[in-house]
Amino acid sequence: MAHSRIVRLPPMPKVSDLLRVYGLSAQKQLSQNFILDLNITDKIAKVADVFDCYVCEVGAGPGSLTRSVLQAGARHVAAVELDKRFLPSLQLLEDAAKGRMTVYHADIMKFDIPSAFPDTEPSPWEPGVVPGVRMVGNLPFSVSIPLLLQWLEAIPQKAGPFKFGRTPMSLVFQKEVAENIVASSGSYDRSRLTIMVQYLCEVKKKYHLPNSVFVPKPKVDASLIHLVPRPVPLISAPYVVIEQVVKAVYAMRRKFIHNPLKLLFPGKEHLVEDLVRLADINTEQRAHEVTMSDFDKLCRAYVELSATLDLPLQPLQVNRPVRVADYLKDT
User: Which family does it belong to (predicted)?
Assistant: First the structure.
């Protein structure tokens, strides 16, 4: 991509001053915690590598991260914000950006991201190739896991933000969620979320963010996580199958996996023996000890067994409710 000239923003009021002028504060019910320190938001923008890219910012809030993304040379920023109280401050920034920013008053869970960048050409889904599109955001805890799962489900379909290719995501998560996302093989921090993220994405923890950098100060710290979809997923099975198998394995995380695998065959629990034989894995291990390779074998065996015995692989409901706790390690 040819690099465009960086257009610096004109001098603007501090974000903290704008919050005071407009009488704005974070709302607890929306899990809002802002990062107003531009030194921190500049680091996030640098990790996101936004220069000359089209950037979708999730939950722009008062616009501090938006400023850093623009200053880092983003070609165009789509700032998506549900809370209408922040629209005046974002529109002020939009005017200053002189055509490099568009504010969308929308729910990111329902927002059609490709529509924000209609002229962007997709990139090949190949190693070493990423499109000129980026996803960035300081995610409210209440929406972080449901939104991440929604994006993960879109990756195999190459839909949503992945219509453009292997779109990188630089996202701030609360500490516990971040630890689950990046947990290494054998770590007790591994969870359903770990498997669903890592089989589809390369993940790296970039920065630890102490709670003191947020306004208001939350009870827990956070981390900046960088995710890039893999050219080829680590598990070769339909998303719905992987989700069901992982859900079963982690349903009884303190037991050897032979027992929870029975949940895949309600009323036909004896089929677990056939599944284990086909998968050829050790079932005397607990959920967090199961490797990605073993999950691949389990999922392939589940598909083969279901096809042989004509067992239905029921897809899960679209827009199904998500219990955040179900995906974390302490359940």
Answer: Belongs to the class I-like SAM-binding methyltransferase superfamily. rRNA adenine N(6)-methyltransferase family.
